[in-house]
Write a structure and sequence with these properties.
Layout lengths: L7 H15 L6 H8 L3 H4 L6 H15 L14 H17 L4 H5 L9 H13 L4 H31 L4 H7 L6 H8 L6 H24 L1
Length: about 220
């Protein structure tokens, strides 16, 4: 870092590096100061505290996965297909960095991102949504994507740790005690995490289309 002036952008970039390599618990202002080779008080010239840092990190992470889908539907593209593309891009971004879902959850936009958010809401307004409804659509999608991304990462961590519960496996195949669970297990419908995400996204988009049609009528 020698010779490189400290800035909010640099602080956020270093924080995301720490997040990806060591997890959210490692992202502290003290450690950031050490990594950047400055004193802790120096950071406060650029960032007010941990909450502002996390908001900046969330925005940085989302920008990494930014695609043309974030600008609005392509010409002739239905709004629901655009939303699905937007949600999948967000999901892939969240699962690509350790603990990213925890950082992005509950974040607040920075002033620099408001133009993009306004454009996205405007795309749904042009499709016939009320502005408030359009905003709620993105809140709902964000909650689903974040929750599924968190589940994905936690399940992956469990598999890496080799955590198994033989008693549970025996129980869920016990047709006498749990006939419906056992039948579900026998059905062979055991989707991969991405398949489960896409199934849920499809159900959510279908529900939004139906809700929109009802309100429009």
């Amino acid at each position: 870092m020698a010779g490189k002036a400290v800035s909010k952008e640099l602080i956020v970039e270093k924080a995301v590096e720490l997040l990806d390599s060591h997890g959210l618990a490692a992202v502290t202002l003290r450690r950031l100061a050490t990594e950047l080779g400055v004193s802790a008080p120096t950071l406060y010239w650029h960032i007010s505290g941990k909450r502002e840092l996390l908001d900046g990190m969330a925005e940085c992470l989302l920008r990494r996965g930014r695609t043309d889908a974030f600008d609005g539907p392509a010409e002739g593209q239905p709004w629901w297909e655009w939303l699905a593309e937007h949600a999948r891009a967000m999901f892939e971004t969240m699962i690509s960095v350790r603990d990213a879902p925890q950082v992005i959850a509950g974040n607040r936009p920075t002033p620099e991102s408001l133009t993009e958010i306004d454009v996205a809401i405007g795309a749904l307004v042009e499709a016939g949504f009320e502005p408030g409804d359009a905003q709620q659509v993105f809140f709902v999608l964000g909650g689903y994507v974040g929750g599924m991304a968190l589940e994905w990462q936690e399940e992956a961590a469990r598999e890496r740790e080799g955590v198994e519960n033989p008693e549970l496996h025996a129980a869920v195949t016990d047709a006498e005690r749990y006939p419906h669970i056992a039948a579900a297990m026998r059905s062979g419908v055991h989707r991969e995490p991405m398949e489960t995400f896409l199934l849920g996204l499809d159900l959510l988009i279908r529900g939004l289309r139906s809700w929109h049609a009802e309100r429009a009528s």
